[in-house]
Amino acid sequence: MSMIEFKDVEKYYGHFHALKDINLKIDAGETVVLIGPSGSGKSTLIRTVNGLEEIQEGQLIVDGYDLHDPKTDMNKIRKNVGMVFQHFNLYNNKSVLENIMLAPRLVLKRDEAENKKIAMELLERVGLADKADNMPSALSGGQKQRVAIARSLAMKPKCLLFDEPTSALDPEMVGGVLKVMREIAQDSDMTMLVVTHEMDFAKAVADRVIFMADGAILEDASTEEFFKAPKNERAKQFLSQVDSH
Amino acid sequence: MNDFFAALSADNLSYLLQGLGVTVGVSIFSIIISLIVGSFVGIAMFEKIPYFSSLIGTLNNIVRNLPLLLIIFFTYFSLPQVGIRLPIFWSTVVAMSFFEAAMLSEIIRGGLESIDKGQFEGARSTGMSNKQTMLYVIMPQAYKKMIPPLISQLISLVKDTSLASGIVLADLTYRGQVVYAQNSHYIVPILIFMTFAYFVVNYLLSLLAKYFDRKLA
Ligand SMILES: Nc1ncnc2c1ncn2[C@@H]1O[C@H](COP(=O)(O)OP(=O)(O)OP(=O)(O)O)[C@@H](O)[C@H]1O
Ligand SMILES: [Mg+2]
Predict the structure, then answer these.
(1) Structure pTM?
(2) DSSP A57
(3) Is residue A148 within 8 Å of residue A84, measured between CB atoms?
(4) Are A96 and A122 in contact (CB under 8 A)?
């Protein structure tokens, strides 16, 4: 069954054509990595999946709901589709534990004791149980991102979106975050769509790689095929540039 | 020449303190009403509801650019003409609340806009509704930032109640004038008394603000 399906999707910012004729199907449980040069529309594409950006034409079906249909209740979809951002976006006014417990309490009406138990288990899992009562401002970037991942997981989503989760981190913090993401990909049947420049992560974890440039998908291949020999010229170029870093 | 004892005789003092009571009364009602109305207007402008937000924004701009004294006069003299008869106290409260709501709404809109968009996206991406996001994530952060400008606006509200002495509201300023009109030796003592009284009221207001600031922190 497909978790995410784009059919002839077009997205404009005013007159700027940001997504061009996107056709893409991601099955439940798949881990897909989205790569491409800066400004190619990766963030735009991933943000349409939970309705942070609207599409102007075509169909976008997520978890069985058509996002382009004005009758669709976006909050229902977002309950099942979490997102992890480049700049973490933890609530500045809430402790680490409260960051994780807030949405389950308000949206799922999860019982308070149960909510806390799940939140603490998740903090344990990302290695930050001792930071439960800290404010986000007291955490390092890598720790913030692991809390943000725990916050998304607390909703028990079917699908998780990651938009460059490690790009804002100091190099020594990247490994810890990628490790958590790898564990999620391997231990759960969650669908994951990840925008990243971490090619080693993509090679190790992704089932598929999608390459975008100028708002269009230029290549969509299995991870093995893609890294062995990308068919698209620009994808080739892009890979050689990234590898030389 | 300055006759403190006669100026602040028991009679005069009680007369002046009643005026202070009127000043504080007008201020308290105006603060409560303008905070409520100003919050709604500020949030409405922030939410960018088509037509509605820009209409409110325009009205707001007009009100903010009028002298408060004009609004006080206007309310006092024009409302009776459309059949609304208010005692002078409430007429002043209406005028002050109207004007201050416009001023506060701008502070509130600005405070909301100063919150990083990422805070919204973080909350919305967990399935929280717009209302929940505003209530639990955005407003607590915004109000904390707004407290200093809100308080300085509310302090000028208290001071500006004195403008209503122009329509003969028997507030502290008006009564001070009545008392020192009796005897020129009273002028300086009464002015000193008024200075002290306004200062105490506003100082208490700023203490209250510090208290809320700490509670929200
Ligand atoms: N809100 C917006 N309004 C107008 N144009 C936008 C907006 N957001 C993005 N764009 C434009 O759309 C294009 C795609 O942007 P997007 O952020 O999706 O790229 P990206 O692939 O994520 O790039 P990066 O790797 O730098 O994050 C860019 O040209 C950008 O300038
Ligand atoms: Mg991006």
Answers:
(1) 0.86
(2) E
(3) yes
(4) no
Number of domains in chain B: 1
Q: Is A234 exposed, middle or buried (0-12, 13-18, 19+ CB in 10 A)?
A: middle
User: Domain containing B37 — which CATH number?
Assistant: 1.10.3720.10
d(CA B39, CA B44): 8
First vs last C-alpha separation in chain A: 38
Residue numbers of the domain that contains B94: 2-216
pLDDT for the residue B5: 85
What's the pLDDT band for B167 if we cut at 50, 70, 90? confident
Tell me the CA–centroid distance for residue A85 and ligand 2, in Å. 10
A-chain CB neighbours of B144 within 8 Å are 93
CA-nearest residue for atom 5, ligand 1, is A13
In the sheet with A159-163, reading across from the earlier edge strand, the strands are A81-84, A159-163, A191-195, A31-35, A208-213, A216-222
For chain A, list the domains and their CATH numbers. Answer: 2-243 (3.40.50.300)
For residue B77, the CA-to-ligand 2 centroid distance in Å is: 59
Res B217: pLDDT: 63
Task: State the average pLDDT for chain A.
Answer: 94
Q: Categorize the per-residue pLDDT at A245 as very low, low, confident or very high, splitting at 50, 70 and 90.
A: low
Q: For residues A164 and A174, give the distance between their C-alpha atoms in angstroms, rounded to a whole number.
A: 11
Residue A244 has pLDDT above 80, yes or no: no
Strand A208-213 with A216-222, pairing: antiparallel
pLDDT in tens, B59-81: 988 998 999 999 999 999 998 99
Contact state of A79 with B118 under an 8 Å Cβ cutoff: no
Instruction: Give the other-Cβ count within 10 Å of A113's Cβ.
Output: 8
**R_g of chain A, CA atoms, integer Å:** 18
The b-or-e profile of B71-90 (16+ CB within 10 A means b, else e) is bbbebbeebeeeeeeeebbe
* Chain A residue with the nearest C-alpha to that of B135: A106
Interchain CB distance below 8 Å, A151 and B137: no
Tell me which residues have their CB closer than 6 angstroms to ligand 1. A 13, 16, 18, 36, 38-44
Count the alpha carbons within 13 Å of B115 in the hemisphere toward its beta carbon. Answer: 28
Indicate the residue of B121, B127, B144 with minimum beta-carbon distance to A52.
Answer: B121
Q: A38 in contact with B at a CB cutoff of 8 Å?
A: no
